[in-house]
Amino acid sequence: MNVSGLVWGATLVALTAVLLVDLLIIGRRPHEPSVRESSLWVAFYVALALFFGAGLWLTAGASVAGQFYTGWLTEYSLSVDNLFVFMIIMARFAVPRQYQQKVLLIGIVLALVMRGAFIAAGAALISQFSWVFYIFGAFLIYTAINLARQGESAEEDFQENVLIRWSRRALPISRGYDGAALTVRQNGRRMFTPMLIVMIAIGTTDLIFALDSIPAIFGITHEPYLVFTANVFALMGLRQLYFLLGGLLERLIFLSYGLAVVLGFIGVKLILEALADNKLSFLNGGEPIGWAPHIPIWLSLLVILVTLTVATIASLVKSSRDRRRELAGVGPREPSGQ
């Protein structure tokens, strides 16, 4: 796929314009969006991604469009999992609901910047060293195993990292929030509000998630343009999705297991592709081994769709069953993810 500088430039300008509209909306009227408002925005962003994929289909073919759709779906599902952690951070630091939009949007912008840097670095490494796929694949399998062991994120599982703890000790932090401001003047002294700590928590969380998501998308397509656009479209509308799903996030108790299967599958796919490229001739007396099955993009898309659908349905069924038992007085509701 040969993407000209003009296409790259037009894409960046268009996507930046959409983000600026989001910034202007929040800057003009910080508020907690209604279900209707959130639904319309999420539908708009999903339709935008679908139309973009259709445009790729018409201009570059079905294979390229399939890679975009598969990558976008994978990144979107990983982004939904990110919302669990964002929700925990918001609760942990008691961020007022009307200011959570700003926190989420800044988190999304940080995620875009970090993922852009990782995409550029990953593309450069892959173009020079094909064995990087082995590292990416092993990392995804390792991540999948850890995700399956840990299950759903819970508030007590959130541990403040070194940077957050250092910020608490070293910086003058005020006792309460001052709207969405990062600084406030108290008793003639300029101090940071707890909002800065929240931003640091969100930013470092974005960094960790980028380490998972970028190898995952490179397991689906090697095209930097598709990797970048799939990530951007997956992150767009994430703040509205946060408010739209609301309590539903707590009911998706098996989503982490579904994502573990997806990441494990992509990790195996990456290693198989590396075997197909390198053939590991050094293990066979200099002769190429020559065996490595190719997993077509349609099969990858099918596996991801089926896995996420099953995980979602199973989560909702179990959550509904637990709620009925709780209302009937059969016993206390089981902890999520147990």
Automatic annotation (TrEMBL):
Organism in which the protein naturally occurs: Micromonospora endophytica
Q: Which NCBIfam families is this protein grouped with?
A: R_switched_Alx
Q: Name the chain's protein.
A: Tellurium resistance protein TerC
Look up the domain of life of the source: Bacteria
What keywords does the record list, in alphabetical order? Membrane, Transmembrane, Transmembrane helix
Pfam families reported in the protein's UniProt record: TerC
- The membrane-spanning stretches of this chain are none
Where does the UniProt entry say this protein principally localizes?
membrane
The entry's localization annotation reads: Membrane
UniProt lists the family membership as follows: Belongs to the TerC family.
Q: Name one GO cellular component term.
A: membrane
Keyword Cytoplasm present in the record's keywords: the answer is no
* UniProt keyword Transmembrane present: yes
Provide the membrane topology annotation. Answer: Multi-pass membrane protein
